[in-house]
Design goal:
Leucine-rich Repeat Variant; 56 helices; 0% strand; mainly alpha; 67% helix; single chain; 1152 residues
Length: 1152
């Protein structure tokens, strides 16, 4: 009957009516009865009572007429103990659910408290005897212990609803404001954490169990030491959970899962196995990666905790076992940084934690074995992140950033710079390339706090340490707290009198250092006029301190650089307002021998200004000599570039090559002085450096020549001092460098080179007959060849004449030629690798340049036909020269390199003979047999592998054919089967380029020369019309188009047109193609160099490089200076030939 009544009451209370409780006359009496009924042994009755109590409590709290008094508070803690006892003893799921529901509501109302937390007034509403008995029983088991025991069974219930409700009760109990730390500790001691871990293990990673378990474990983890052991035991259950929550974007349990993992790793090092650690790290990295690329996000707390896990791994490497920690940290840092930088609206704490991880990772990369490849890779990755992502992000977003983030980024950069390594230097370069000085003062303008100011100046000091070395930034560290934030204030402070301000000297030293370093990298932190005025005031006020021997020369360097730069910039802007007194003080500092200008870092504008000041020329002479000595001792690697404004050979080379300073004059005068004093070691040092300067900047040779380097060389010739062979070779090296790069105009009026030329010939050309010359003699021959080459441009003409008619050289040439010619077929074995072959190569080069020089300097004196015949064949020529038959013999039997040079020499000789015949209308003096022998050799080389040899021989053969017009008795080409074969081979390659062999393709250009010459004859051989018949010409036209038309082919078609070989249709086809070709050239025009690009000789002592340079020089000038029928490759020449063709076509059409 009782149970039915209670059940009916429960049904009534379960109706959806909030005013039901108002109809109960005495709620407290009813509750008293119900609470007493909980002690009955029947689960059914207790279940009904629990439901009624639950509904009464719920209705009272939601009733509109309810007051603020909790209706159950007066029955606590008795009720709580009874509920705990019911929950612990009952096995009925409905009873458990009702009990748990009521306990949950009580927990939400903060009533699950210990006895001492309640007022004893509850006794007025309950039976005194019973209450006293229950309280006595409570002393044996506290409420929290009772509750812990009570929930163990429901936690492991097979009924998921019971299990979830129990977890919910536990969560609300632990989160109640009435729950103290000691109560959570008791819960852990009662193994509740173990039970929750077990529930988590059995959950099969399904929500809401996972979420609720992790929320409970998060609260239990506050019991630090007590929870630690349980966490280690249950840690393995977190791994699959982490896999699960990592797959769900913003899963509410992500944070608690990662936090528990963090606590286990940090509080229990070594508790996690290597395999577990590796698995966890991979999952965390994957989470960060997905977050960075936007594939799946995570909450800020989760992100922070994931970064914290890696920080712990870095700080306690013993806990990571066999894990490849550097690689894991690298991936984590990379993805975390990209996530913060690339995704907008990141939480500030996320960014700060990411930067903290970045700093810890970089410090870790420097710990222990610094040559560890994985750590080096990690370091490189961090530097790359800072350079390519963090630095641009900071610079572009500084105006929207919080001060804490800016500070953290600056600290990160500072940490990198503090490590003395190449990495710090490279990162310093990155900062400099981003105008870091300007950015720093911009940052100080945005954030006025002392922390930012101090960090900015500290970072600048470390930056200067990396850039300049030797703790150069220490003055800034010393004065960082006293320096102003505004750069204008800095400039103003520099020009103040020190008087009694003890901090001012250190501040001025720091300011001067900042300005000096910033200007080295072309940054201006204040107006230049303002800085110059302040700097001059500083110089005037502190003039006495500059002469103090205890003063650091580095201060002088800063002053000179800054002052010279400001004056140089002012001169460029035509601003000349300055203090002459300050300038004189500065010049006195420069003249101090203790200061080494050329070992300092100084801006190029400042250095140029110094080299423009005549007052310090003598001092600069000493500085240059000191630089030459150091350079010679160090062996001097050539440094191309001037990134750090270091005064190296590159800087000096640029100065010497320019007209607006005394650089070239200083070197020339210094060398002349050393020659007179006979200081051989210094002479060698200066000579070697000057040669290097020309190697870097060939234009320096012009300035040196204009300032009298030739006259200085002549002082060596007449000097009474004796110099060693080493000095002579250094002189030769410099001479070669000058002559190989100078423009002829710079030498045109210089007669001092005659003495130099004669001195070289005197020392290194042996008077006795020898078919092998020493390396030194060959090097001199190379220089003499350059002099002869320059004479063709109206320079060094008199010096060239002394060479051309020098009997010793003529004898040496004749001896070498006779020795080579006498070897016959064996000559091919004497290539450039042999002494005889090397001597022959240089002799042939000298001969080539001699022929050109003879034509330029002694025009009308030489009878060029004497090279073909002589009244006395044994009598040598009165100048440097090789007879034609000797050249042909050498050409025929010589090695490949010898063939190249001999073919150019023969071509030059044929040109001279042709010009003479054409100008004087004289007849050839040589016999038909002589011509036949030459013709045979030339025909045999038309198909030679080297295109230069083949082309040169073909051009010579075409000249030979033109000479035959003067010999009516001889018809060399009319019956020449060889010429016909050449034509036939050529047409095959023109008609079917793809079918032609490689040798045919190479011989196409030489053959066109011969074909063109034959088509120019008055009597064209009849077989020419057979070879160039209608089908052949049509085939040639079909194989070419507007984009593939070559100059040689067009010249051939032009001669065919003029010889009336083309039909009307073919002419029309060519005309249309030429129109398209011209359009194609204009559409795809190429910028052609106005003059051939000269190669720079790197090691003149290598004779192979010397003759290779001369061969290139010979090749370039031959093609430029070829007569009108020759070919100059380029679009310009092709366009000219197109116009000639179309003009000829127009004339022909008009005549018809």
């Amino acid at each position: 009957m009782l149970m039915r009544r209670i059940h009916c009451l429960g049904v009534l209370l379960n109706c959806e009516n909030d005013d039901l409780i108002a109809h109960i006359r005495d709620v407290y009496s009813l509750i008293t009865i119900l609470v007493t009924g909980l002690q009955l042994p029947s689960d059914e009755i207790r279940g009904e009572i629990l439901f009624v109590l639950y509904k009464l409590y719920a209705l009272k709290n939601t009733s509109a007429e309810g007051d603020d008094t909790d209706i159950l508070v007066s029955f606590c803690p008795k009720l709580l103990y009874l509920l705990g006892d019911v929950l612990m003893k009952s096995q009925n799921d409905d009873v458990r659910l009702n009990c748990i529901a009521l306990l949950t509501m009580l927990a939400q109302g903060h009533l699950l408290r210990e006895e001492g937390a309640f007022d004893t007034c509850y006794l007025s509403y309950s039976d005194g005897a019973d209450s006293e008995e229950n309280i006595e029983g409570a002393k044996e088991l506290s409420l929290v212990n009772l509750l812990a025991e009570a929930i163990k069974g429901p936690l492991l219930s097979s009924n998921s609803q019971v299990q979830i409700s129990t977890l919910d009760l536990l969560f609300h109990y632990l989160s109640s404001i009435g729950t103290l730390d000691n109560q959570i500790h008791v819960m852990v001691e009662e193994n509740i954490a173990d039970y929750v871990f077990e529930v988590l293990r059995l959950s099969d990673c399904k929500d809401p169990v996972v979420r609720m378990c992790l929320q409970v474990l998060d609260f239990l983890s506050t019991a630090k030491e007590a929870f630690k052991l349980r966490l280690v035991i249950g840690f393995h259950t977190l791994i699959p959970v982490l896999h699960y929550v990592a797959k769900v974007p913003f899963h509410p349990a992500q944070f608690q899962t990662v936090k528990l993992i963090y606590e286990c790793i940090s509080e229990c090092p070594g508790a996690v196995s290597s395999s577990q650690m590796e698995e966890l790290v991979l999952v965390l990295i994957k989470m960060l990666k997905k977050d960075s690329n936007g594939e799946m996000g995570m909450t800020p707390d989760t992100f922070i905790m994931a970064c914290s896990v890696f920080v712990v791994l870095i700080r306690s490497p013993s806990c990571n076992g066999d894990l490849d920690l550097p690689k894991s940290v690298e991936d984590a840092v990379k993805h975390a940084a990209l996530s913060c930088i690339c995704i907008s609206e990141r939480d500030i704490n996320q960014i700060l934690q990411c930067l903290y991880l970045l700093k810890e990772a970089y410090a870790y990369s420097h710990d222990g074995n610094t040559i560890n490849s994985s750590k080096l890779t990690l370091r490189s990755c961090i530097l790359d992140i800072c350079r390519t992502h963090l630095l641009p992000w900071l610079i572009s977003g500084i105006h929207e950033m919080e001060e804490e983030i800016v500070l953290a980024v600056l600290e990160t950069f500072h940490l990198i710079l503090l490590h003395s390594s190449n990495d710090a230097m490279e990162f310093a370069e990155s900062l400099i390339s981003s105008s870091w000085f300007s950015f720093s003062f911009g940052c100080l303008g945005l954030f006025t706090g002392d922390r930012i100011k101090y960090r900015v100046y500290l970072l600048l000091s470390s930056l200067i340490d990396s850039l300049l070395g030797n703790d150069s930034g220490q003055p800034i560290r010393d004065a960082a707290l006293d320096l102003p934030s505004d750069p204008v204030d800095l400039v103003f402070l520099l020009g103040q009198r020190r008087s009694n301000n003890l901090n001012l000297p250190s501040c001025q030293t720091a300011i001067l250092l900042i300005m000096y370093t910033s200007t080295l990298y072309d940054e201006r932190i204040a107006d230049e006029k303002l800085v110059l005025a302040s700097l001059e005031q500083y110089i005037l006020l502190n003039r006495s301190d500059f002469h103090d021997p205890t003063n650091d020369n580095f201060i002088v360097t800063q002053l000179v650089n800054l002052y010279g730069l400001l004056r140089g910039l002012g001169k460029m802007n035509h601003e000349i307002h300055y203090s002459q007194e300050a300038e004189e003080i500065l010049f006195r500092l420069i003249k101090n021998d203790e200061w080494d200008l050329l070992s300092a870092r100084i801006h190029k504008v400042s250095l140029r200004w110094l080299f423009q000041q005549e007052n310090i020329v003598e001092s600069l002479d000493h500085q240059i000599l000191a630089f030459c000595r150091n350079y010679n001792l160090e062996g001097g690697d050539i440094i191309i570039g001037n990134i750090y404004q270091t005064i190296d050979v590159q800087t000096l080379a640029e100065l010497v090559s320019e007209k607006d300073n005394y650089g070239a004059r200083l070197f020339v005068c210094l060398l002349a002085q050393l020659f007179e004093e006979g200081q051989e070691h210094d002479v060698i040092s200066v000579l070697n450096l000057m040669a290097t300067l020309i190697h870097i900047c060939p234009a320096a040779s012009d300035q040196l020549s204009l300032h009298g380097i030739g006259s200085t060389m002549s002082t060596w010739c007449y000097s009474s001092n004796t110099f060693s062979e080493t000095t002579f070779m250094s002189i030769l090296l410099l001479v070669f460098k000058i002559l190989s790069s100078v423009h002829p105009e710079a030498l045109s009026a210089d007669q001092s080179w005659i003495a130099v030329t004669m001195k070289m010939m005197e020392y290194f050309i042996p008077p006795e007959n020898s078919d092998v010359l020493s390396n030194e003699s060959l090097f001199v021959i190379g220089i003499l060849s350059l002099i002869l080459h320059l004479s063709t441009s109206k320079a060094l003409e008199e010096a060239s004449k002394t060479i051309l008619f020098n009997t010793s050289i003529i004898s040496a040439v004749n001896t070498a030629v006779c020795a080579a010619a006498s070897k016959g077929p064996a000559l091919v074995d004497h290539d450039e690798g042999t002494s005889i072959g090397e001597t022959l190569i240089f002799v042939l080069l000298l001969h080539y340049f001699a022929i050109r020089s003879l034509h330029a300097t002694v025009q009308g004196v030489v009878d060029w036909q004497n090279f073909f015949v002589s009244t006395n064949p044994a009598e040598p020529l009165p100048f440097i020269g090789i007879h034609c038959h000797d050249l042909c013999r050498i050409l025929h039997f010589g090695s490949p390199v010898v063939k190249i040079i001999a073919s150019y020499s023969l071509l030059e000789l044929f040109n001279r003979v042709s010009n003479q015949i054409n100008n004087t209308h004289e007849e050839l003096k040589c016999s038909v047999g002589y011509l036949m022998s030459i013709k045979s050799i030339l025909e045999g080389l038309v198909f030679y592998d080297d295109a230069r040899v083949a082309t040169n021989c073909a051009v010579c053969l075409s000249m030979l054919l033109r000479w035959e017009k003067l010999e009516n008795q001889t018809k060399l080409h009319g019956k020449s089967n060889w010429c016909r074969m050449i034509m036939e081979e050529m047409t095959v390659s023109l008609v079917s380029p793809r079918l032609a062999s490689l040798s045919l393709a190479k011989s196409q250009r030489p053959a066109i020369h011969i074909a063109t010459a034959m088509l120019k004859q008055k009597e064209i051989p009849r077989w020419m019309r057979t070879v160039f018949n209608n089908s052949c010409i049509s085939g040639i036209l079909n194989s070419i188009d507007a984009s593939s038309l070559s100059l040689e082919t067009l010249v051939l078609l032009h001669e065919l047109l003029k010889s009336d070989f083309l039909s009307t249709e073919q002419t029309a086809t060519i005309s249309q193609m030429l129109q398209e070709c011209r359009k194609h050239i204009y559409t795809n025009s190429e910028c052609l160099p106005s003059e051939p690009i000269k190669q720079v000789l790197t090691t003149p002592y290598d004779l192979g490089d010397v003759y290779s340079y001369l061969i290139d020089l010979m090749s370039s000038e031959t093609y430029i200076d070829m007569d009108s029928w020759g070919f100059h490759v380029g679009n310009k020449r092709l366009l000219e030939e197109i116009e000639l063709f179309l003009r000829t076509l127009t004339v022909d059409n008009t005549c018809r």
